[in-house]
Amino acid sequence: VKIPAPADEPAASGPRVTTVQVRLPTGKRWTRRFSLDTNTLGDLFSWMEWQSLEDSKTAGGQMPLLTSLAGYDVLKQGFGPSRRKFHRVPATQKITQSGEATEIECTPLGEAGFETGQEAVILQL
Fold first, then answer.
1. Is 104 part of any domain?
2. What is the CA radius of gyration of the chain?
3. For the chain, how many structural domains are there in total?
4. pLDDT in tens, 88-99
5. UBX domain location, by residue (predicted)?
6. CATH number for position 69
7. Does residue 4 belong to any structural domain of this protein?
8. pLDDT tens readout for residues 7-55
9. What residues make up the domain containing 76?
10. Rounded CA gap, 38 and 108, in Å?
């Protein structure tokens, strides 16, 4: 499996930047900065798939490669409308929001409900 490495992270001091922390089923966490305006949901999910491949090289297979799954979910923490569940199908690279059929992989993170500062998401396999 070959997944391209993600682009460089934006500067922490840049405008409209968020740090996303992904909590894995194993308890481990992945963290990376994203631009709310130029990075998309597709960028977030592609980075997670790349990170799962990198971890598989050193972690001894504690978690499956995300690209080997039929699909997986990411739950964005928050209250009310800011709490969202996104579904990814790696084979097609399509992303949908729970309960909706519209494909949203090209949606900027800011439009997907992510905010400046820090965001926590939970990876559900």
1. yes
2. 14
3. 1
4. 999 888 999 987
5. 13-49
6. 3.10.20.90
7. no
8. 999 999 989 999 999 999 989 999 999 999 999 999 999 999 999 999 8
9. 17-124
10. 6
